[in-house]
Amino acid sequence: MFAAKGVKRHGARAVRDLVRNRILASVLIPAPVRWRFYKLSGLDVAKSFIAPGLFVGGAGLRVSPGVILNYDCFVDATGKVYLGPNVAIGPGSRILTVTHDIGPQEKRRGLEQIVKGVRIEEGCWLGANVTVLPGVRIGAGTVVAAGSVVVSDLEENSVYAGVPSKLVRKIL
User: What is the pTM for the complete model shown?
Assistant: First the structure.
């Protein structure tokens, strides 16, 4: 009986992932209305522009009005991911909410998942191929340069660049 429940639960998740990450993410769904279908799939998504290729793993994604998720973004929503109003995420960017401790020599990836949410405040712009690691808060109005890796909280109204991302300058 236990095995049957596990198969049923896994099957439902597989169907959800197929719908969200293959059908809704395809070019067959017009980008201006794609947000509605993500909302119908159970995600907390307001009117926004979602380009083809979005992958969402988990159910913790919250998308505010006016968000732009460009082509081929990856959102690990195992933990909570909040995208504030008018946030723009460049193509190929990744938002991660899960990490692991470093384990013993024979298996460095620890067994326990560590889940930490990500919060990207109003008006932020993340360039192409930005990676945001678990537990990060990006302050309102901040710009993150293409290719950057965000490993810690970023101040509002600032420009950051690099691996790891470093403050370049404050902006108004």
Answer: 0.90
